[in-house]
Design goal:
The chain is of the alpha+beta class and 158 residues long. It has 5 helices and 7 strands, in the order E-H-H-E-E-E-H-E-H-E-E-H. Helix 3 crosses helix 5.
Length: 158
């Protein structure tokens, strides 16, 4: 697991293009460098990218209202925009490792909460179970959130 380097971008895009369940309309987000607001982390196995996680570390969820069902600590909050793992690598813990790396980074940056929205385009029940299994609370079928330390403790105890 490591932050995305520009030289990694072609391999990341190949993985996403080959994916049966990555929304191809979002591929443009990874074809070129985005603002410094979002960070991208990737997981390698040999010479192939097995997973990607994109998020930010400077949100304030109290401003938008989408996370009102959570008891929010003071900002900054980390917004986990997207996590995607190659289907053949999902049983290997790649997603868990990406979330762990992100939670460690969020904690190191002083974030008091990690939140995001579940992609409802395919397999929302499996996605909900994935986040709940890592210590996140899920509000309805859409938003998830947790303190970074709660996520890290849950992962350490698995």
């Amino acid at each position: 697991m490591e932050p995305l380097q520009e030289t990694d971008r072609p391999a990341l895009c190949r993985m996403l293009e080959e994916s049966d369940d990555f929304p191809q309309r979002l591929l443009y987000l990874y074809r070129r460098r985005r603002s410094n607001h979002y960070w991208t982390f990737i997981a390698w196995r040999g010479d192939k990218v097995d997973g990607v996680l994109t998020g930010s570390f400077d949100s304030d969820f109290a401003e938008g209202g989408a996370f009102d069902s959570f008891e929010l600590p003071p900002a900054p909050h980390a917004f986990l925009e997207r996590v995607h793992v190659r289907e053949s690598a999902r049983a290997m813990g790649v997603g868990r490792a990406l979330i762990e790396m992100y939670a460690n980074e969020a904690s190191a940056r002083g974030c008091s909460f990690i939140g995001g929205s579940i992609d409802l385009s395919s397999e929302p029940t499996a996605r909900k179970a994935f986040f709940e299994g890592l210590g996140f609370a899920v509000s309805g079928l859409e938003n998830f959130g947790a303190h970074p330390t709660d996520v890290l403790v849950t992962i350490a105890n698995r």
